[in-house]
Amino acid sequence: MIKFLGSKEIPWYKINKRKVWDILLVVVFIVFFVLTVRQRFIDSEIKKNMVNMVRSYEITLKQVRTQQASQLLSHGKMQRKIAILEQELKNQSRYKKVTVTGYPPLKGYGAGDPYKTSSGEKVRLGRVAVCPDMFKQGWTHFRKIDLRGAGKYNGIYTINDKMAQESKFYGKCVNRIDIFQHTLKEAKQIFFENAEVVLLGEPS
Q1: pTM, whole model, 2 decimals?
Q2: Which domains does the chain have, with CATH numbers?
């Protein structure tokens, strides 16, 4: 209690009421400031964590995409290699080293009518017969071939016949082409080993 001259005793808190309010305001401000700073710090940490999560997601996504692209590229390379190998295999089946012989329309050079072929077409110049092994590989009726290494008989021919598996003149028929000739004399003039032949076009 505080007593002034000529007055009653006055409680100290009434005298310092303004100061008390000032102190309270300062305390409230400090608390508000601390809470605001704390909230901003929390928000900053949350934002930082979210940014890190997004970056991590972007990095992971980029890695996944890179891996997928690599796998697709690898798959594409593998597909191209397979296509090249298939093409090489196809080219190998289209190219052969063969023995070239001739045949006339005489009995003993084939089965049945010597003027008929296995394609149903009659024998004629510009037509050839091939061995069964070649026939199985796509050298079939009416396919065209380009013959080289057979001297004056080089040129384009059409397959219209298939030879027998065995020949009394040449034995087992393997990689051989028989060119039709009108006479036995002409047929006997044809004999070339290691001639080159290419199968042309696609089957019709």
Answers
A1: 0.54
A2: 97-199 (2.40.40.10)
Q: What is the pLDDT of residues 16-52, one digit of tens each?
A: 566 666 677 777 778 877 787 777 777 777 777 776 7
Give the pLDDT confidence of 106-132 residue by residue, as tens digits.
Answer: 876 666 677 888 888 888 999 999 999
Q: Which residues of 180-200 are buried (b: 16+ CB within 10 A; e: fewer)?
A: bbeeeeebeebebeebebebe
d(CA 59, CA 85): 38
Name which of 138, 116, 137 is nearest 127 in CA terms: 116
Helix ranges, the chain (H): 12-15, 17-94, 132-136, 184-188
CB 98 within 8 A of CB 195: yes
